[in-house]
Recover the amino acids of this structure.
């Protein structure tokens, strides 16, 4: 079997933990598997490098930023590889100019274009364990790029995809984190939260994009596209984690698979906007220009030729967004702008929603029974999200978790 | 003009100093020169990385060691380049997989095989400043290598050599250090020491290999081989330093150019060795096997079929060497072994020695007049070295400096 194992920054955060990772890698190798390991920078290292750059220049050049921060993963590959070698294994650290993980040139947030499997397969053929630097690539000019935060997950799944044609007897991508797997919701909030044995790519994607931190969304999309089973598990114990796989028929019998939340939200409402074609553009274009990501846009029904628009932005961008939108008021394109940076988003996710109706109605009832006021609602095929006051967030997650029976074994 | 500037670890040791380096680089660029900058790791960084490796495994794999420590220079290239970019210059950091500084695969002490000038010339043609990571290369397989301590000097001179055919209106390699240039001897020992305006490659090589730390010996050999003028100067002020150049006729009028010393020495004498062919091999082969570098070997005239052999080793290898040689005594190949790890080496260097006789005799007289006992002597064409008690070292350097008139302007 070909196993791609990915270890995040916490898992390689100290020399002691790197030894534990080496132990785990060695077990897979001893069992006769081909093993490729993808590692992140040691916890704290990326931030240290970013701080170093910011102390040098206020706005570091993105290309040079990538050259700088990519050293973090390089250090991890060398330390893990030398540890495995000292244990008697063949191992080789590989940077992306060797693996040839080729990306576009969008420094600090590059996209993978292709991976040259040849170098990796030749290392595996030697019987060596390949230790690859996560999070980074090279562009067509040979310049170093990085994939953005959380990019190591994406590296791991993309490498698994590239190696799929060369895998003997199956393939799995194991993502080791500081949690046991994917839970029905955050156990820190709901102690009854239950670890899921499996979850579909679609559900995982919706959970990840609505606040669950366990997997990076891009890696889930890669897994879905290339059908790479992803095993999310703990680097601190041996228990089975959660398999993220293509949807199977029996998954639909469960209506709600998980509940995620995002505390990092702020709500903005632009009031009394003249309801003419192009008005949405005049509201959102200046925000996009300022690189503010807008989520959950709701436009109320128009009356008297005017409408109200509400949406959420990341809390860190709230002040900036409000200032930009005040300009609209000055230009008389809106009457006024109100906002609230003390809101949270709670999302129900489940592929069963496609075939089961009434999930939204039930959700609203559970929240209303608990005295929780819903401020915004948005739905997708397999997700319902609501924005509520942040003080109600924990309670909302708890009542929904209980209401939809997530405590009971699947 | 094409200028290759090399800045060592102290010169880029802090963000503030990197800014100073950027200022200096920018001045050369503003004067219309093509500028390539070679940087070392920030002072302390290489040792931090080595300590990290040693805390992971007692004897780190050399290949992985190079992957690890090469991140130090990479960080420096990015920080310097982003600083120059923020000042409005075009700059590009380049790692060795981009420059294609190709070495053999002798990890941790690789030798340069060739440099592909194309990438560098294309960056220069763009009008950009090229910032190259010193000390490292890649081998034919694309694996990261390093050139050993002090390797950044060698990188700089080798890059200058590779770019020589592309240089418009001349070429110079500037090595910026924490001293003003090359002195007749260490000013910390002899306050009257005088900065040399110029010195020949041969003299510089002998001074560097006999203890003067200002330039790495391999870089001097490169400069000599490819006739690259090297300007050794301070990164902390603007004064002219010392030009290291090919020997000119007038250099021979000066008998002694400089005096170097090495405190890191130990002397060993193997007594009453049977004077048969192959005996030198049986003494030195086990030392070579233990990677102990032996210097200044002296064999006394044989009497009664037996001889004594003396030599020096680095002080750090003294205990190990003594233990190895005790084996010879056990095997009855020698009567006994004596040693002294409290010795120093003092060397006189000057191309004028070739044409002026009596330098050695004068040297011995000055030392004897000062009451200093000579323990070992070794000579080369342009150098005379003596081993003396370490307590006499400073005095020896001072009397020789005065005796050979090095205080007087050239």
């Amino acid at each position: 079997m070909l196993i791609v194992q990915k270890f995040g920054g916490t898992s390689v955060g100290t020399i002691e933990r790197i030894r534990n990772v080496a132990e785990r890698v060695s077990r897979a190798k001893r069992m006769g598997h081909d093993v490729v390991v993808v590692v992140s920078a040691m916890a704290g290292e990326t931030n240290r490098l970013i701080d170093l750059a910011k102390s040098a220049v206020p706005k570091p050049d993105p290309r040079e930023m990538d050259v700088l921060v990519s050293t973090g993963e390089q250090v991890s590959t060398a330390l893990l590889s030398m540890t495995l070698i000292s244990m008697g294994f063949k191992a080789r650290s590989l940077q992306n100019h060797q693996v040839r993980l080729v990306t576009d040139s969008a420094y600090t947030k590059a996209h993978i274009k292709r991976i040259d499997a040849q170098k990796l397969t030749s290392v595996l053929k030697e019987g060596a364990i390949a230790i690859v630097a996560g999070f980074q690539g090279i562009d067509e000019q040979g310049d170093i790029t990085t994939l953005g935060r959380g990019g190591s997950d994406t590296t791991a799944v993309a490498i698994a995809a590239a190696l799929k044609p060369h895998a003997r007897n199956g393939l799995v991508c194991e993502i080791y984190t500081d949690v046991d797997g994917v839970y029905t919701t955050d156990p820190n909030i709901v102690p009854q939260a239950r670890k899921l044995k499996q979850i579909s790519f679609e559900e995982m994607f919706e959970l990840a994009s609505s606040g669950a931190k366990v997997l990076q969304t891009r890696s889930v999309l890669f897994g879905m596209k290339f059908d790479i089973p992803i095993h999310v598990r703990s680097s601190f114990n041996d228990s089975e984690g959660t398999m993220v796989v293509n949807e199977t028929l029996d998954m639909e019998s469960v209506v709600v698979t998980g509940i995620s939340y995002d505390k990092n939200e702020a709500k903005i409402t632009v009031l009394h906007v003249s309801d003419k074609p192009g008005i949405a553009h005049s509201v959102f274009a200046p925000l996009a220009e300022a690189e503010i990501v807008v989520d959950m846009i709701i436009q109320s029904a128009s009356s008297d030729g005017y409408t109200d628009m509400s949406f959420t932005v990341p809390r860190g961008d709230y002040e900036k967004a409000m200032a930009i939108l005040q300009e609209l008021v000055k230009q008389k394109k809106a009457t006024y702008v109100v906002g609230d940076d003390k809101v949270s988003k709670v999302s129900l996710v489940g592929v069963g929603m496609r075939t089961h109706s009434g999930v939204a109605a039930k959700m609203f009832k559970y929240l209303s029974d608990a005295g929780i006021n819903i401020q915004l609602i948005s739905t997708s095929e397999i997700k319902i999200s609501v924005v509520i006051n942040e003080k109600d967030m924990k309670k909302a997650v708890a009542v929904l978790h209980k209401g939809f029976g997530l405590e009971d074994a699947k």
